[in-house]
Design brief:
Elements (H helix, E strand, L loop, with lengths): L5 E3 L9 E9 L8 E7 L11 E2 L11 E8 L3 E9 L9 E7 L10 E9 L4 E7 L7 E10 L2 E11 L2 H8 L13 H4 L2 E3 L10 E3 L4 E3 L5 E3 L65 H18 L1 H8 L8 E6 L14 E7 L2 E9 L8 H14 L3 E6 L23 E6 H15 L4 H15 L15 H10 L7 H25 L3 E4 L8 H15 L1 E8 L6 E6 L4 E9 L6 H11 L8 E6 L2 E7 H4 L14 E11 L11 H29 L17
Parallel strand pairs: 18-19, 19-20
Antiparallel strand pairs: 1-11, 2-6, 2-8, 3-4, 3-7, 5-6, 7-10, 8-9, 10-11, 12-13, 14-15, 16-17, 17-18, 21-22, 22-23, 23-24, 24-27, 25-26, 25-27
Helix pairs in contact: 3-4, 3-7, 4-6, 6-7, 6-9, 9-10
């Protein structure tokens, strides 16, 4: 579509009651990011209240009309998806505006391939709109969906704002206060609000050390979580005429229950006593038992906790309605009935949405023939989707199963995949960070999470590097692995799956967005990128990846050197422009006061290798990290090294577990301290320089 064009959704699909809007972009530098938002507007072009503004701190509407599904990595960047149930949109809402904003001085002109697509509930893309003229804007309206009688239409807007989210939001009747960026984490740790009835802004409520009731009637303090920036939706003051395009801070818009990350003191007499569990896993003995139990546990919790059920099914085009789930259902198929592991049914306004579920646990792989049978059954019975669920993580361009669809059939069946790691991630996000409707729901999700994390559940996420891992590792040791070897591509795919799972796990624990970074030239496909990575693996013997975690001072790099058997996790910290080198070095040592003594610090100098050493050696003499010739410092690289697991599986001595442990240690012992020190620095004035700057070399 071109800018300003419009089209009716009913002209593009027979089933456009629920659509998935996707906003995507890419960056050759790998550091591009933006936050999506949706605004509901009345006939006057204004929000009915602040509750009509949906963003990452207020991701879903109580009626299910809007649900932000979060980011997923793409070939060269990331994609934000939004589920829009148009049948649930209140009658007095005329337009849904879909927008995105950048922060910290970033502009949309720095990103490539700005694009919005709209797909129906089967995942088929109905339309697309690309923005090619972005420059200094820090907020953009990508498009809008609007009513014309009883139908919905889409308009390609492409309008930018140099004034950022504040300028965009005030145009539609929302006052955004972004001065809260300097507030401390403690001031925002317990800020929640009431959902209200959807007809206006609910009053913000702050619980300073308040307690949340648990199902047994006891109370536990809310967890202190890191402050998260976002738009503050309170009509207190007018925004400045031309605010800096930074990410505003939020007073969130929903009162929800979260559970503390740290358990209360146990009343058990000794450590051998085990707490009673709703979903015990210790007596499971076979893969079949694990599959049956895992399916039943998950589907029952989805039906009982609406926020969780919607979170998992909205991405598949399911409406927000009454959900019922079933297991081991017998369905006719030729001479022999088939028994899918589960069935999900959602009813809204007299319409029924149905999906078949096929589950695998442990290292069991999905079977193409089995999934094909369920696709055929779903098509004949008018079901909307087949959902596969296993420990594998799906990748673009590398399907887990191959199925054929009959193009002659008018009814389309979508095939979707969930990883057990993603299920655990969504449960953790709800009970630890975003909250659910009541304490009983929070407790149910906690029991589900405990079950999934139990060593005997079989639901541990990606846990095997595949049959090519050992031959590739041996080929690198013996220098017999040649470029173009397909086994190297298989290892690279397994590495990508592992990194995506690491992002899901760490993102759920922190309550922050965590995504793998792809630094690829424009137009590069996933297949060509993996082939190039495989060739580098054959030549250099290393697997490398980058992770971007919201709130971190930089991109986390992890390198697995198969020749030396070492894992290196690192981050690069820039130094302020025009700063004093010795002051920057001393400041870094103060920030790393609690970091491990074996942390390696390397000075980044243009065009050459800078001084380096362990933190233990540099703490007494920060000046040792400065170049002796006075070369200009661009930053510091901080690294931790760890022995790499050898086996392909998920055992304690395996490669997968060693990568998990390396990222965990680096984030908790280095990144977290740097982020905390940075927040303290923003609240206190910078100290005066302690010495004169190191003179530049002659002729500089």
């Amino acid at each position: 579509m071109t800018k300003g064009a419009n089209v009716g959704l009913a002209d593009l699909s027979d089933d456009a009651g629920t659509v998935i809007a996707s906003l995507s972009w890419s960056s050759t530098a790998g550091d591009g990011d933006a936050d999506v938002s949706v605004l509901l507007l009345d006939a006057g072009g204004k929000v009915r209240g602040d509750a009509d503004f949906f963003y990452y701190n207020n991701p879903s509407a109580a009626d299910g009309s809007v649900q932000l599904l979060g980011k997923t990595p793409t070939d060269g960047g990331s994609e934000d998806r939004i589920s829009l149930d148009l049948t649930a949109v209140p009658e007095d809402v005329e337009r849904l505006v879909v927008a995105a904003s950048r922060y910290g001085g970033s502009r949309f002109g720095d990103l490539d391939d700005l694009r919005m697509t709209v797909a129906d509930r089967s995942g088929e893309v109905l339309l697309g709109f690309s923005i090619g003229d972005a420059s200094v804007e820090s907020a953009f309206i990508f498009g809008e969906l609007y009513r014309r009688g009883t139908e919905w239409k889409y308009r390609a807007v492409g309008q930018g704002y140099e004034t950022g989210l504040a300028g965009l939001a005030t145009d539609f009747g929302i006052d955004v206060d972004d001065e809260g960026e300097n507030e401390s984490a403690d001031e925002a740790a317990h800020t929640v609000a009431d959902p209200g009835d959807g007809e206006g802004a609910a009053p913000a409520v702050e619980f300073a050390g308040a307690a949340q009731p648990l199902p047994d009637g006891s109370a536990q303090p809310l967890p202190a979580v890191p402050a998260q920036p976002g738009p503050k939706t309170s009509a207190v003051e007018e925004p400045p005429a031309a605010p800096a395009p930074k990410r505003p801070r939020a007073r969130t818009a929903k009162k929800k229950v979260t559970l503390p990350a740290v358990a209360t003191k146990s009343l058990a007499e000794n450590d051998s006593w085990r707490a009673a569990r709703l979903f015990p896993a210790s007596n499971l003995k076979s893969d079949k038992e694990r599959e049956v139990r895992a399916t039943s546990v998950l589907l029952s919790v989805m039906a009982q906790v609406p926020e969780f059920g919607r979170r998992l099914t909205a991405a598949f085009g399911a409406p927000a309605g009454r959900m019922q789930t079933f297991t081991e259902v017998s369905l006719p198929h030729g001479e022999t009935p088939k028994r899918p592991d589960g069935v999900i049914r959602v009813e809204r306004a007299g319409k029924l949405w149905t999906a078949l579920v096929e589950t695998k646990t442990n290292g069991n792989a999905l079977k193409s023939e089995q999934v094909q049978n369920y696709m055929d059954i779903a098509a004949r019975r008018g079901y909307e989707a087949v959902i596969t669920l296993s420990n594998d993580v799906a990748l673009e361009g590398s399907p887990l199963v191959e199925v054929k669809t009959d193009g002659r059939r008018k009814h389309k069946v979508a095939l979707w995949h969930l990883s057990w790691a993603e299920v655990a991630h969504q449960a953790q996000m709800l009970i630890r960070h975003e909250g659910v409707g009541n304490a009983a729901h929070a407790w149910l999700l906690q029991e589900l999470l405990h079950y999934l994390q139990h060593e005997n559940s079989g639901c541990h996420g990606f846990q095997n590097m595949g049959p090519s891992w050992v031959p590739v590792r041996n080929g690198i040791d013996e220098e017999t692995l040649s470029q173009g070897d397909p086994r190297a591509v298989e290892v690279v795919e397994s590495w990508e799956r592992l990194i995506r799972q690491v992002c899901l796990r760490i993102g759920g624990e922190l309550g922050q967005k965590a995504l793998p970074v792809q630094r690829t030239p424009r137009g590069t496909t996933a297949l060509s990128r993996r082939a190039a990575h495989a060739d580098r693996l054959c030549e250099e013997g290393r697997l490398a990846a980058e992770l971007r975690v919201d709130g971190s001072p930089g991109t986390i790099t992890i390198v697995a050197d198969l020749r030396t058997g070492k894992l290196r996790t690192s981050v690069e910290i820039p130094v302020p422009e025009g700063g004093y080198p010795l002051t920057s070095a001393k400041r870094l040592m103060r920030q790393l006061a609690e970091a491990p003594a074996d942390l390696h610090v390397e000075t980044l100098v243009e065009g050459q290798n800078g001084p380096r050493g362990t933190l233990e050696r540099l703490r007494p003499e920060p000046g040792d990290v400065l170049p002796r010739d006075g070369s200009r410092i661009t930053g510091f690289r901080l690294s931790l090294f760890k022995s790499m697991g050898a086996t392909r599986g998920n055992a304690e001595t395996g490669f997968i577990r060693s990568v998990d442990n390396a990222v965990d240690r680096f984030h908790s012992h280095v990144i977290a301290h740097l982020a905390q020190a940075e927040r303290r620095t923003r609240r206190t004035p910078a100290p005066e320089p302690e010495s004169t700057p190191v003179p530049a070399p002659a002729g500089a």
